[in-house]
Amino acid sequence: MDKHPSAQYASKKEFAIQISNACKTCHSNEQVLARPIHKQAITRANAPPCSDCHGSHSISKVSGWKETASNPQYCLACHKKDLSLSMKGETLSLTINEATLRKSVHSNHNCSDCHVSFSKKSHPIKTFGSKRELSISVSEVCKGCHSEKYKQYQGSIHSNMLAKGNLNAPVCTDCHGAAHSVARAKTDKTLGLKSCNKCHGELNSSYEASIHYMGRIKGNEKAPICSSCHNAHDVQDTSTSTTIKEGCIRCHKNAEKAHNKWLSNPPISLPSFAEAHFDVVSCAACHSPGAKRAIYLSLYDRKTGKPLPEEELLKILDTDSDGLMAKIDTNADGSIDAKELWNLFQQLYKKGITTTFLGNMDVSTAAEAHQIAGKANAVKGCENCHRPDAKLFKDVFIVVKKAEGKSTILNAKREVLNSVFSILPVSKFYALGSTNVKLFDVLFIVALIGGIAVPIGHISFRIITSPLRSLRRMGKGGKK
């Protein structure tokens, strides 16, 4: 009480660090370092002083604190501080902003609901090869509450990419944000646009050129964004999927009925032409007027009704992805012709795999698929497709789907659509006029000429021989 020296410090933190040295009087380094959580905190270069976590004059026993503190508050006692973890050269922040946490969709959850192996009694030290591996591991926790969404994700192209070892493939936290700041999808109407732009930002300008984006900037919050058409969780490869069309019909519920008004229909016993168009023509093929169209023939297994995976095809052909085209394109002209397509069909058939090439018309690039215009600008007119020299059938490609969901696109010649070699391989794709098999056209003309020639010949023969028949009748009359 007689002696109270004064001292100068550069900052409050420097003062706190100096005072913390007094803690060592009772709590030796060996005692403190024996606890993994302490060791991890105090051995860092910017280690916090003891008082940051334990307070200064109001220190209480941690055992009693565990019993009285709520789960989030107990964790935040440390994690609202400046904490970080070094992970093989990467620095991971372990600091949680309490205000952000309270605004998130998980604000009413306890920390241990997601961090299931952590509690007031257990704080394991986990190690990961990288921050990315940690993000993937954390996303696995989401299925505990969101099992249905997780099942949808399991069938997506993103999940398939991850299963094949692509660690950059999106997981829950990439789209929804970290668990501590997850926004409500129902209130954040742009979540399905912002999250997709993280990886697919190059397509945003084409979306902004569409009628859909024009609707948004005019205040229509229901105007489609990425997740409206591509789905939020079960995102598929667009080259072999019909989910995009399903996305269109979700908003345009009367589209099929409207198209039936101007697309001609055959007798009721047959499927309507309008339905046939909906099966094989993508919406963008007609509603992106400036796009370049092409015919895509996707390789399917007839027995399973699913695409034949490229991995299985490569094994049968004894090649790799780089050598696939060379294996099929035997004349090495850079494009698959009808005979080469038939040879592939035969090779697979000999291995017990019956295949078919399912055809559809689509735009050539992803950017074109997003540039949807108003219906007044849509491509109409049967002559665009149903004539031998149809310009929309000029470019043809073979599509082979990979197990991860992406596709390999191979150039093909126009002739694969109307060659006799394509009768079996491409039997399920037919467009009157543009895919007519030339041999059948010749046979039809021969049959038509023959059919007309028979009655004409018969009539001509009767006319020529009519005098003879008259004389014969006259002779028979004289005998009587």
Report on the architecture of this protein.
By secondary structure, the protein is of the alpha+beta class. 44% of the residues lie in helices and 8% in strands. It has helices at 12-20, 29-33, 36-42, 50-54, 62-68, 71-79, 98-103, 111-114, 131-140, 147-154, 157-163, 172-176, 191-200, 204-208, 211-217, 226-230, 243-251, 255-260, 273-280, 283-287, 310-317, 324-328, 338-350, 366-370, 438-464, 466-479, and strands at residues 84-87, 90-93, 293-301, 306-307, 355-363, 396-401, 407-412. The strands form two sheets. Strands 3, 4, 5, 6 and 7 form a five-stranded mixed beta sheet that branches. The model has no long low-confidence stretch (mean pLDDT 83).
Distance between the termini: 167 Å
Overall helicity: 40-55%
Number of strands: 7
Percent strand: 5-15%
Secondary-structure content class: alpha+beta
Low-confidence stretches: none
Biggest sheet record: 5 strands, mixed
Radius of gyration: 36 Å
- The helix count comes to 26
- Kindly report the oligomeric state of this protein: single chain
What overall geometry do the principal axes of the alpha carbons give?
A: elongated
Mean pLDDT: 83
Features:
single chain; 5-stranded mixed sheet; 44% helix; alpha+beta; 480 residues; 26 helices; two-stranded antiparallel sheet
Task: Give a nutshell description of this structure.
The protein has helices spanning 12-20, 29-33, 36-42, 50-54, 62-68, 71-79, 98-103, 111-114, 131-140, 147-154, 157-163, 172-176, 191-200, 204-208, 211-217, 226-230, 243-251, 255-260, 273-280, 283-287, 310-317, 324-328, 338-350, 366-370, 438-464, 466-479; strands at 84-87, 90-93, 293-301, 306-307, 355-363, 396-401, 407-412. It is of the alpha+beta class and 480 residues long.
